[in-house]
Amino acid sequence: MKYAFYPGCVSKGGTPELYEATVKVAEKLEFELEEMKDVGCTGAGVLSREISDPINARTFAKAEMSNLPIMTICSTCQGVMTQAQHRLKDEEYRNYINSEFLSDEGLEYKGTVEIRHMLWAVVEDFGLERLKNIVVRSLEGLPVAHFYGCYLKRPPELMVPPEFEKTRKTALEDVIEALGGKVVKSSGRGKCCGFPILTSNEANSLQMCGDHTIDAKEKGAVTLVTPCPLCHLELDGKQADAAAYRGEDINMPVLHLPQLIGLALGFTAKEMAMQRHLVSTGAVEEALGFEVKA
Amino acid sequence: MEVTLKVRRYDSGNGCEASEQSYTIEIDEQDTLLDALVQIRDENDPTLGFRGSCRSGFCGDCTMTVHGKGAITCRTKVGKAAKKSEDGVIPIAPIKMAKVVKDLIYDDQHFHWDKIKATQPWVDIDSRISEHDYVMSNERVKELRLAMSCTQCGLCDQGCVVLAIDKTYLGPGALTKAFRTVHDPRDTRYRERLDLLSQKRGVWDCAHCFEATEHCPKGIEPTDRIFDIHDKVIKEDLGVGGAKRHYKSFAASVRAHGWLDEARLAIESEGIGNVKGILKLIPLAVKAALRGKRPMPYFLHKKRPGYKKIRSIFEKWEVKR
Q: Which domains does chain B have, with CATH numbers?
């Protein structure tokens, strides 16, 4: 399967381990990734839609030209793009965006793009049975708490429409189980991680980060896993601040989805660049029988 | 059908702890939970406290927590609710985030009305306009009507992850009401209102998680209405503190490079002159750098190949603005 790969800003910046792990795991899954380089940021729900819709329409037009579905590795990129795609289904609006913003460059978005998060590509394009068959290191009951990131779940009519309910509603849980892991249902699994309000209300943001990581720990998870690098920036990157804010130790590792898959496909923790995390992933490595340096 | 309702009982006036009381009644499965509560009050227990007025989903008065989730009880059938638990018992409690007055009655003054009042929910019309007919576009009327169809049922606020931890946030219910006034072209206080909404505890405190949209039974999509206000605030260059600096830095880096400059964003969100804030970033930056996370700021941040085209989109938008 070939994709127009949209890595997003964060996998090229604050979470480089996600990019590294994705490329390696994609190769194992025989996903051919043609990286989209001449495209802009989705806007991440920060930019006004009046600016981000034309930028996303430009990305969609380029994907249409390559005749490939877009593959994202970020719940936020996926959510923002899907919402833009939905608005651009309106022909009048699409014509306006094309003529006002894209025509100078000779581009036109025709309204046909497909956008798939890697999680959905694994479940829908590769298949869970095939995934089970290529596992070389079963996660053997490893308790994993899943954390979707709100943009991959909502609004449900766009992100999990009826025709995809079977594959997307529990996609992350299904992947964990296919890899041999044990799903831990943390209360924050479908909630906001707190990242979007980090600069507007740090206290609320850290409260959320603490709630989610502490709850996963109390429910017995050895690690969290997320398909969203912004959730990772919060849950891994701000965990120490959340621990200080809450006045308790947390130490909950947070894996990116491709890292979890990669471990089951035989990659080492180093190959999955887990040493780049701010919260040590030692507990995961130990549980999987890796030698962990003290 | 015979059904048991397990109702949370509490009286803020008597100082006792909350308790649960079960009522088993005979009722048609097509009747609503509000019908069941009325029947219990009329036939079994006149002390049971709850609110409910229109009994047809218009007044937003009878919102409660059923099976742990927010529900409008006059729109919830008894038979369907009973099927949600193995033993057929229907647990009913007051809505989660408000202070309970008695049983299922909550303090809607603090939960709803004070916040709605804070948004100054009236349209101030220019006296020159009020002398004549004012013709709005159909599209604008449609958008306003959608927001006006809100019954203040409180389900969006029930779903809000920010309100769950911070009751001072205005919340999606009040912000949807605010959208109704800022989007009205007859109003004369557009910038003043946006300025008010872009202060702390306002529109920037929204996490954009779409919980409010998922919870809204009327299809008003409160998260999108908050985005509508957010976009208007940006257009008017309003906002305060870190939220405004964050937006401006985000937009400036995408405008200049085509994609986000995260290191610059971290610095500028704190404020260039804010030495204490920037010093606060250093331990995390050092730790991240030692682990191989080194996003480079400003001129060291590589430009995307099509950055000029992205810049041109910004320029066109700026001209339109």
A: 2-106 (3.10.20.30), 108-235 (1.10.1060.10), 241-320 (no CATH)
